[in-house]
UniProtKB/TrEMBL annotation:
PANTHER family linked: BLL6502 PROTEIN, THREONINE DEHYDRATASE, MITOCHONDRIAL-RELATED
Domain of life of the source: Bacteria
InterPro entries in the record: Ser/Thr_Dehydratase (IPR050147), TrpB-like_PALP (IPR001926), TrpB-like_PALP_sf (IPR036052)
Molecular function terms from GO: L-serine ammonia-lyase activity; threonine deaminase activity
Name of the protein in its database record: Threonine dehydratase
Keyword Lyase belongs to the record: yes
Keywords, in A-Z order: Lyase, Pyridoxal phosphate
Cofactor list: pyridoxal 5'-phosphate
Keyword DNA-binding: no
Record-annotated Tryptophan synthase beta chain-like PALP domain positions: 24-306
Length: 332
């Protein structure tokens, strides 16, 4: 479809990404295969320099912005963490200042990581939507360049990880993809189209942030409340228009996972691979575990799309064996 970049555009974006970082690995871990009863390939986006897939999009967006608007020196955007890290990393490479708006009570360790990249961190509001609206106001007031959560350059950069996975494992039957603001799943659709694959795409949202699932099923944009305490990267209250249109036309279905299911997936990833996943980073595996009975004989792709979880929260999850009884404690 026309909203998706071409293979030529994706290849060009990948070269920008690889000037700053190498391709990330994909592994088929025996204990994950055993848990799901099929062949599973984990794409390790937790191995990027910022610990999440978002870095790729930030690199491409800021690189292209520097080419077309070389006088821009101040960037502003909203985030729960990983998008802000990507913008901060890219801004530093181009001598720009990144002003990033986060909600009050945001991850302390993501906040610290952004500040370490030279980000001017601004705490405002209670959720991502509040932050996005405030960032837009700051952009207008100060004549800063506003970076959206979804843009063709962001999508093209993020697609480089899907191109890597699909090139390494072109016969994947199905992939599970978390949905925050949509760049990850739209990038998967772009890579699938560019390579002419038939892989089914299943989107994954938090059961405590159902905006994209409700919108997908209704065929129109629907706002939904956000109450997830663990998968902050999926804490979307209002879907992005472009993302939703792409999703409507390319995704096979969308499923929801609870914080308890996400916590279980985070623990399984650590026990089986000794990789740390944040809540949104483990959501795809949580969804695959829901579908275990229907995955027999299939080849499955699952991104571990981010590992930026606060140490205290992760230690609680690793120590909580009975998730159903410890749900409140795990997600606090």
């Amino acid at each position: 479809m026309s909203l998706l970049p071409s293979k030529q555009q994706l290849d060009a974006a990948a070269q920008i990404v690889y000037a700053a970082m190498p391709a990330t690995p994909q592994y088929s871990w025996p204990l994950i295969n055993e848990a799901l009863g099929c062949e599973v390939w984990i794409k390790h986006e937790n191995h990027t320099p910022t610990g999440a897939f978002k870095m790729r999009g930030g690199l491409v967006y800021v690189h292209e912005l520097a080419q077309r608007a070389p006088t821009v020196k101040h960037l502003v955007s909203a985030t729960r963490g990983n998008h802000g890290l990507s913008v901060g990393f890219a801004a530093q490479r181009h001598g720009m200042t990144a002003h990033i708006v986060v909600p009050r009570g945001n991850s302390t360790e993501k906040n610290a990581a952004m500040r370490a990249l030279g980000v001017d961190l601004i705490e405002f509001g209670d959720d991502f939507q509040d932050c996005r609206e405030h960032a837009a106001q700051l952009a207008k007031k100060n004549d800063w360049h506003m970076i959206p959560s979804m843009h063709p350059d962001l999508l093209s950069g993020v697609a480089s990880y899907w191109m890597e996975l699909f090139t390494a494992q072109p016969d994947l039957d199905i992939i599970f993809v978390p949905i925050g603001q949509g760049s990850g799943i739209c990038a998967a659709a772009a890579a699938k189209q560019a390579l002419g694959l038939k892989t089914k795409i299943v989107g994954v949202v938090s059961a405590h942030a159902l905006a994209y699932k409700s919108s997908f099923e209704a065929g129109c944009k629907i706002e939904a409340p956000v109450s997830t305490k663990l998968a902050d990267g999926l804490a979307c209250r209002i879907p992005d228009d472009v993302s939703l249109e792409i999703i409507m036309n390319t995704v096979d279905r969308i499923v929801a996972v609870t914080d308890t299911e996400v916590a279980a997936a985070m623990k399984l990833l650590f026990v089986a691979t000794h990789n740390v996943a944040e809540g949104a980073g483990a959501a795809a595996l949580a969804a695959a575990l829901q579908f275990k009975a229907g995955l027999a004989g299939l080849k499955v792709g699952v991104p571990l799309c981010g590992g930026n979880v606060d140490a205290k929260q992760f230690s609680i999850i690793i120590g909580a064996w009975n998730y159903a009884e410890k749900d409140t404690e795990v997600c606090s």
